């Protein structure tokens, strides 16, 4: 298992080493998040003039149906549907785009560090070095990934015993291990940024 993120004393850059399996798992999770964010009408259409896109406030006005998207884009005004719809219309498209770009940064960084497009026979280690700005992007994306996975699993505060009671071969237990691993990576990244 990855030892998490650490800051180099000399370069001040943040470093992590992943097995090819771990790096591929991160890429897969980030890719799934990008796909989920793009499979909704809130995404700006490609080819739109950038200025026109900035001034286009025709975003969605209703909460997403997908529970993960509801968690990633909660209502800004729980007691005022009209204000919530207006807020969503002006913000959700750009928020989705930002979350998708952050997840894509994880993918790009892993591939630039040597993660091959397809898993191979040879076991590799992938050394990732992040500057502070990129580390902040990774950190935001880890939050989104954990929210997405936690929502899909139905993770609730204080329910650790439930997860530890599941047999190892249960797919939910395995997915929960991934959820915890993401939390570990997030924690070590926070500590390395401090």
Describe the protein in words.
With 194 residues, the protein is mainly alpha-helical. It is 58% helix and 7% strand. The protein has one domain (6-44, 95-193). Helix 1 (20-38) packs antiparallel against helix 4, helix 4 crosses helix 5 (132-153) and helix 5 packs antiparallel against helix 7. The model is unreliable at 41-45 (pLDDT under 50). Pfam families: DUF2017.
SSE map:
Elements: E1 6-7, E2 14-19, H1 20-38, H2 50-55, H3 67-72, H4 81-112, E3 125-130, H5 132-153, H6 160-164, H7 171-193
Antiparallel strand pairs: 1-2, 2-3
Name a few traits of the molecule.
194 residues, AosR, globular, mainly alpha, single chain
Structural class: mainly alpha
How far is it from the N-terminal to the C-terminal residue, by CA? Answer: 23 Å
SSE succession: EEHHHHEHHH
What oligomeric state best describes the polypeptide chains here?
A: single chain
Report the C-alpha radius of gyration, rounded. Answer: 18 Å
Q: Give the uncertain stretches in residue-range form.
A: 41-45
Taken from the alpha-carbon principal axes, the silhouette is: globular
Number of strands: 3
- Spatial order of the strands forming the largest sheet: 1-2-3
């Amino acid at each position: 298992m990855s030892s998490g993120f650490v800051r180099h004393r000399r370069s001040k850059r943040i470093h992590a080493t992943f097995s090819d399996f771990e790096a591929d798992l991160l890429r897969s999770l980030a890719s799934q998040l990008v796909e989920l964010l793009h499979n909704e009408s809130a995404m700006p259409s490609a080819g739109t003039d950038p200025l026109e896109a900035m001034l286009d406030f025709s975003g969605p006005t209703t909460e997403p149906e997908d529970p993960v998207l509801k968690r990633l884009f909660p209502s800004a005004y729980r007691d005022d549907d009209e204000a919530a719809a207006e807020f969503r219309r002006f913000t959700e498209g750009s928020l989705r785009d930002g979350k998708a770009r952050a997840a894509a940064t994880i993918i790009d960084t892993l591939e630039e560090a040597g993660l091959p497009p397809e898993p191979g026979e040879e076991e590799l280690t992938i050394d990732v070095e992040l500057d502070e700005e990129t580390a902040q992007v990774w950190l935001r994306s880890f939050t989104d990934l954990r929210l997405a996975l936690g929502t899909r699993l139905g993770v609730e505060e204080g329910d650790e015993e439930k997860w530890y009671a599941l047999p190892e071969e249960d797919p939910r237990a395995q997915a929960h291990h991934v959820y915890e691993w993401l939390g570990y990576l997030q924690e070590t990244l926070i500590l390395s940024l401090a």
